[in-house]
Design goal:
Length: about 350
């Protein structure tokens, strides 16, 4: 387990940094369901289970990432969200199982015979992975704000369906890929590649893995050259994609997304409608505006919004601070009632 700088709770709570960049993050690599998992934590609360009750926060913000499911992509988003919440609540992000390159001395999977390891890198396994993380790291009675991004929205809805006992105050679903992924504009192109040809990608990734770190960074910057102000945290995190093991798990999960994310779970949405906020893009190849219009028609009383600011599906690449500011604004009324 790797730790960052520690701050006493009282001192951290009283701090008001000028910039989100000054807010420290605590990083851990743990085994969850037997798979290597990266966790980023913002705030002075490191252990919510063993802290004294008087010191525990009333609410936890938990981010469920898209795919690639690397917590590092959300580093700037976490810091900006924590700052926007006046540093009153912890903001955590948990990676998908096997998507992060573990530190030296840690294997991708734990040496265990646990049954829960079965298909842990698949879509079903990733959902159970998040529920297991909550069970082992968060008090049962703690209120939650779940923030799902892309396929993380599908996982969030599945979590609410499978564990109705979760004390979910709100679930914010950003660019939600919760239906007909293979029929989406990008899905039509990617499905054959992901489901039939993904193994051909392993060899170039393997060869690129031998490049020095500087060369890898240059390749990532070249790939993101179309962005005016790419997030530096995203550039550093993308180095994980040069790992064959990480890429294999990422592509395997993506192939299951194309096959399994078909029908929208309208039953779970209806049962939790008052807790849900949907945010769709206007030019999103994974969940096009047509999907927004249809869900808006099916749930006229739902909080279903359409992006008016031109954010891309992968907002973490260049719009993390703007998205965090919007979310804190959306949740103001909920937080004042706590």
């Amino acid at each position: 387990m790797l730790g960052a700088a520690e701050l006493p709770p009282g001192e951290a709570a009283s701090m008001r940094p000028v910039s989100e960049d000054q807010i420290p993050l605590h990083e851990e690599f743990i085994y969850c369901c037997g798979a290597a998992t990266q966790v980023l934590k913002c705030g002075p609360w490191r252990d919510l289970l063993n802290g004294e009750s008087t010191d525990l926060p009333r609410l936890l913000f938990l981010i469920i990432p898209g795919n690639p499911g690397l917590a590092g992509y959300y580093r700037t988003f976490i810091q900006a969200l924590y700052c926007g919440l006046n540093q009153q609540y912890p903001v955590w992000a948990v990676s998908h199982a096997g998507h992060c390159k573990p530190p030296s001395g840690m294997e991708m999977t734990e040496d265990t015979d646990m049954k829960e390891l079965e298909d842990i890198f698949g879509l079903h396994g990733q959902t159970e992975h998040k529920l297991d993380f909550l069970r082992k790291n968060v008090p049962k009675d703690m209120k939650l704000v779940l923030i799902g991004h892309s396929i993380g929205c599908y996982i969030t809805l599945e979590m609410m369906k499978r564990a109705s006992e979760l004390k979910v105050l709100r679930s914010v679903l950003l660019f939600p890929t919760i239906e007909r992924m293979a029929q989406s504009p990008k899905g039509k192109f990617m499905t054959p590649l992901l489901c039939k040809l993904r193994y051909i990608l392993y060899m170039p990734v393997y060869l690129l893995s031998f490049l020095p770190e500087r060369a890898k960074t240059s390749l990532v910057r070249f790939a993101l050259r179309g962005l005016k102000c790419p997030d530096e945290a995203s550039i550093a995190t993308s180095i994980n994609l040069f790992s064959v093991d990480c890429t294999a798990n990422i592509l395997y999960m993506a192939s299951q997304e194309m096959l399994k994310v078909v029908d929208r779970d309208s039953t779970t949405i209806q049962q939790n409608l008052k807790k849900l906020i949907f945010y769709y893009g206007t030019a999103d190849g994974w969940c096009p505006q047509q999907y927004y219009e249809e869900i808006k028609m099916d749930f006229p009383d739902g909080d279903i919004r359409l992006c008016e600011r031109g954010f891309r599906h992968a907002f973490v690449l260049d719009a993390s601070k703007e998205m965090a500011a919007m979310i804190t604004h959306w949740l103001q009324d909920d937080l004042t009632k706590l």
